Amino acid sequence: MSSKSGIFHKATEQKAFDTEHRRRITHSLDQYQISHEAGKEQFAKLPLARERAGFIRRKSLEGLDRYLIEWESHFKRNGGKVIWAQNAAEACEQILGILRKNHVTKVVKSKSMVSEEIGLNNYLKTNNIHSLETDLGEFIQQLDNEPPYHIVNPAMHKSKEDVAQLFQAKLNITSEAHAASLSEEARKHLRDEYIDAGAAITGANFLLADIGAISITENEGNARLCTSIPKVHIVIAGLEKILPSVNDLSLFLPLLATFGTGQKITAANSILTGPRRRNELDGPEEMYVILLDNGRTDLLAQVPQREALACIKCGACMNVCPVYKNIGGHSYDSTYPGPIGAVITPFMQDYNENIHLSYASTLCGACTAVCPVNIDLHKFLLYNRQKFMSETQPGQSDKLMWSVWKRSAMKRSFMNGGGGFKNFLVKYFFFHNWSKHRSVPKAAPKSFNEQWMSQRKPVKKVVSEDEE
Ligand code: SF4
User: Fold this and answer.
1) Does the beta carbon of 311 lie inside 6 Å of ligand 1?
2) Potential cystine with 212: which of 30, 75, 402, 429 (Cβ 3.0-4.6 Å)?
């Protein structure tokens, strides 16, 4: 068992039986479900929209080398600068270099899961650069010194009362525990920071190959302020984010909104083609895009799991996953939790340390059924398990368990035996993982075979006329 697997088991055990945590998550996800059902109605033919989106994302991955080069040449022609980073360390160093070159000591950030993936905030902090999250959910999580809980809704597990207390403790702000008042307080606190910051760091929802642009989708307008006011704008994006054409946004923006938050379209959608041009009033003087690999090409080498790179990070698979709903986002200890995280994290981080996540699924298929780009998530979880088992020598206790099972299952006398010994075996093998909070299932006093034999009516022999 890897060390992360042990930590995962402890965290899940604690969260799964935390009824208050479950109540909050269920409440948030119920709200999402209502909006999501309403949002879906904007699509005349949703299955066709999903099929088309899945096709475009797979086409983008198949032509990744070509589309990335096309995107880069257009973006550079527009005055942007592109940096290819192989891993988290390289990306962080490059960002620090840009900030140092521009004498920046304070940056504003809009929501970016890739920046979480590379541990950017901590890295900047150790290099004496203050990085301030401006998305409300991320701002709350940063204040509380916690990573995001969900890729779309980072503070989903916190109540309004929690946030009001946090603002009081960390910002000395007294506010009603009311969404509008809390947002207003956060807005007041953040507004001047955009003006003071020397640079902004954002993610990108999509890279648009044909016009060399990035697309950012958000609800609070904070990304727009980040990309309009500071002199330097640094975008950090995974290299799988490419879409062939700006025209594809007509499908992907409504799809991302409906599956991400249940909206028909998010409130602010920006397409940025480069730094500010002559005669333009807003925008940065310099714009950089860091294209991050960090394990993505390793995942691309996995067939068929590579298709998981088609993900548009809407978070819908987490919202329907019975495991996520019970153990919550933090238990996964991964930037990408839930079903999609369980598929990709082993390939994007240390494989042996993270493969246990592929077992955090009931394989019910709810994730696959909801995914807007039709990624076969539960099948890929099975492929991950199959890969792991084919490469791993079973431990002594596994060997013993399967040998006892095999011998027993092949003996009719044992299968027909009373429940006592069977109950003992089940209790012995499952007691530690199973029975602390639940009763161990009990074997029936009579096996199915015994019941069948005792209830079966004798078959009448059909006698032919000749025999008579
Ligand atoms: S795998 Fe599908 S459902 Fe899950 S986050 Fe990605 S696009 Fe959304």
Assistant:
1) yes
2) 75
- Cβ proximity of 254 and 170 under 8 Å: no
Give me the residue spans of the domains in the chain. Answer: 42-294, 411-455
Mutate which of 29, 243, 340 for ligand 1? The one with the most ligand atoms within 8 Å of its CB, which is 340
**pLDDT single digits (tens) 305-355:** 999 999 999 999 999 999 999 999 999 999 999 999 999 999 999 999 999
Listed residue (162, 257, 158, 247) closest to 209, CA to CA: 247
Q: List CB contacts of 348: < 8 A, sequence separation 6 or more.
A: 117, 294, 295, 296, 298, 299
CATH architecture of 42-294: 3-Layer(aba) Sandwich (3.40)
DSSP string, 271-295: EE-SSPPTT--SS-SEEEEEEE-TT
- Any ligand 1 atom below 6 A from CB of 323: no
Whether 290 lines ligand 1, by a CB cut-off of 6 Å, is: no
- pLDDT (tens digit, 9 = 90+) per residue, 376-405? 999 999 999 999 999 988 888 888 888 888
Which of 46, 50, 253, 311 is the best mutation target for the ligand 1 pocket, counting ligand atoms within 8 Å of the beta carbon and taking the most?
311
Query: Does 371 contact ligand 1 (Cβ within 6 A)?
Result: yes
**How many whole angstroms separate alpha carbon 125 and alpha carbon 131?**
7
